[in-house]
Design goal:
By secondary structure, the protein is an alpha+beta fold. The chain folds into two domains: 79 residues, Pseudouridine synthase I, catalytic domain, N-terminal subdomain (Alpha-Beta Plaits, 2-Layer Sandwich); 95 residues, 2-Layer Sandwich (Alpha-Beta Plaits). 14% of the residues lie in helices and 31% in strands. The strands form two sheets. Strands 1, 2, 3, 4, 7, 8, 9, 10 and 11 form a nine-stranded mixed beta sheet that branches. Strand 9 and strand 10 form a beta hairpin. The longest helix is centred in the middle third of the chain and has 9 residues. The protein starts with a strand and ends with a strand.
Length: 180
């Protein structure tokens, strides 16, 4: 079984939590499925859930280089040099990243739901939006890459994993796409 799930902000990518924080169990009723990959508690968007271990491995193993695409709101204006640095790959503490595919967007996509709670607003600090695809899955990789080029991430929404697209799923909604 493969389920597409739009993980809301603040939800952990696990089914239980000893501290009582929101988890997948608050949204997903199917039994015996597990997240194929992760999204941080403060990230949103597409999460794949499956009961197929081989499929989960293919999605998450860095050797398969499954593309993951994100909408990224960053603090500051994305200059050409910063975008090129992301395209070239960025040196992080755990080594050089693979090149990212990245483009600046004209603004927040009009279909994107408002985040609850909203991203902090500062009159004197502009923000910009990027669409960014990576082929690795290091811990907090997109956030670390944008910070390394001087554009700290304010909001991160995953919209695609390989051929699987978030589409019109709203936060907390899921859809079974196959009974593999």
């Amino acid at each position: 079984m493969l389920i597409l799930f739009n993980k809301p902000f603040g939800v952990l990518c696990q089914f239980t939590d000893r501290e009582g924080r929101p988890t997948l169990a608050d949204h997903v009723r199917q039994k015996n499925v597990y997240a194929a990959g992760r999204l941080d508690q403060d990230s949103e968007g597409l999460l794949l859930l499956t009961d197929d271990g081989a499929l989960a491995h293919r999605i998450t193993d860095p050797r398969h280089r499954e593309a993951k695409t994100y909408l990224v709101q960053v603090e500051g204006v994305a200059q050409v040099a910063a975008l090129q640095a992301l395209r070239d790959g960025v040196m992080l503490k755990d080594g050089q990243t693979l090149p990212a595919e990245v483009r600046a967007l004209e603004g927040e996509p009009d279909w994107l739901w408002p985040r609850d709670p909203p991203v902090r607003f500062r009159k004197t600090v502009p923000t910009s939006w990027l669409e960014m695809s990576i082929h690795e899955g290091r811990n907090r990789q997109v956030r670390r890459m944008t910070a390394a080029v001087g554009l700290p991430t304010l909001r991160l929404v995953r919209v695609r994993i390989g051929s699987h697209v978030l589409g019109d799923l709203q936060p907390g909604q899921s859809r079974v796409v196959s009974a593999v």
